[in-house]
Structure formats: C-alpha cells, structure tokens
Amino acid sequence: MSEFYLEKKSQSPLYQQLMLRLKNDITAGIYPAGARIPSEQLLCETYGVSRVTVRKAMLDLVQEGMLVRRQGKGTFVANEKLRKDLAFITSFSDACAVKGHQAGAKLISAQWETATSEDQDRLGVDEGAQVLEICRLRLCDGEPVMLEINRFPEAYAYLRDEAGESSLYECLKRHGVIPSSAVHDISLGHATPLASKYLDAELGDAMLVLDELVLSQHGDPLHTSRQWIRGDKFTFRI
Q1: pTM attached to this predicted model
Q2: In angstroms, how far is the first alpha carbon of the chain from the final one?
Q3: Going along the chain, which residue ranges are E strands?
Q4: Residue 238 to residue 227: CA distance in whole angstroms
Q5: Of 52, 77, 102, which closes a domain?
Q6: 88-98 tens-digit pLDDT
Q7: Pairing relationship of beta strands 82-85 and 234-237 according to DSSP bridges
Q8: Quick one: 222 and 159 in the same domain?
C-alpha cells in the first residue's frame, strides 16, 4: 500500500493531498455517483494518515457538495443535483426533464381542509371556506427527492381526481390555468416525522424548505406550497 501514501514532507497539508486524491478518483470514475467511499479505517491504512486527517478531508468534500453523509450508512459520492431556477415558474417534472431524468409522484393524501387564517390571507379565501390540500412525494428516477404539500382554493376542486398525475401544472394548463409568477421563501429546516418517513431521512435531519405562493396568469392566487427537499438531490438558482 506504500505507493498510495501521501507526501508528509510536502508543503501541502496531508488533508488537502487526500482531498485531491479523492477528487481525482471521483472524476476518473473510480468512485462513481452514488458509490460508497471506503471507511475511515481503510482510508487511514491505504494512505498512511490519521483519522483526524481523513475526517478533515471528508468534511471539506461534504461541504463542497462532492460527498454526502448518510447517518448509519456511510459517506457516498453525491449524485448530480436537480436545479430549479426561481426566476421562472417550472414544475418538478420540467426540472427532471432538463437533466434527462424521469419525474414521478406518489400521492399521500388529497383532502378538504377548513381554511386557516394563513389561507385567508395568502389565497384570498373567506373564513370557513374549504381548501384542497394535496400531499405528494416527488420522485426522480424512482428515488425520493421532495415532499410537497399544496393548498388550492375550492375553484380547483378538479385537481383532487387528478392529483396522482406527475405534474399538477400540466393538469392546470389543460384547464386553461397557467402558473405565471410566485413569491418564494427558502430556509434551512429539519425533517418532520412525515418528511423523514418518505424521504429516507432521520428525524431532524437538515433539509431545504421552500414556501411558495404561486399566482395564475391573471395574477390571482393559485396555490400555496411547502416543500421539504433533500439538499443532496436538489438545488435552486436565484
């Protein structure tokens, strides 16, 4: 294994040398996207370095987005992230298609709820009105990426029968409704019990949370949305 050892007399710190070795291995396809990186112990033995050096190199690669840690499973090469440009109104299905992936949806629930004060304020519905809440798991090539909860005014009741479709926006367009603009709020949140259940995450894991108010082509409130998103799978352009 000595041929893999790092240059301990080099001016470049050992953890940086290890980072570069791992980056080169990832770029060369030795560790392809989704592959598990060897254990800390094996990396220590392979490169003749301490656990402190290995952990520092791995942490920096995680922070760069090249690696992702999965609790209880190990460290893996990050997959290419889907990207949504918030300057435009695009569906999850469109974001997948741009990257050559297949979008999917799993309906968790579609039910009527009494409007909250937030619904009244953001959707412009009356007190006591009913809103349609649709909760779905979004998939990319069969892998869970996002849990979304959308709330629509009663005028869009037809969506309840079509909520299992991969794109609600395509359904809306068939009814002459075009999502045209939105107000976005992005924050760092944590996996709720529902999100952890469906997104293959531990309760409390860090996640991106996107809150949206989407307007139709006429400027009317179309729906609100809250999305819990796996940051290792999805990113935004602002």
Answers
A1: 0.64
A2: 46
A3: 67-70, 74-77, 82-85, 103-114, 130-140, 143-153, 179-190, 206-216, 221-229, 234-237
A4: 17
A5: 77
A6: 566 677 777 76
A7: parallel
A8: yes
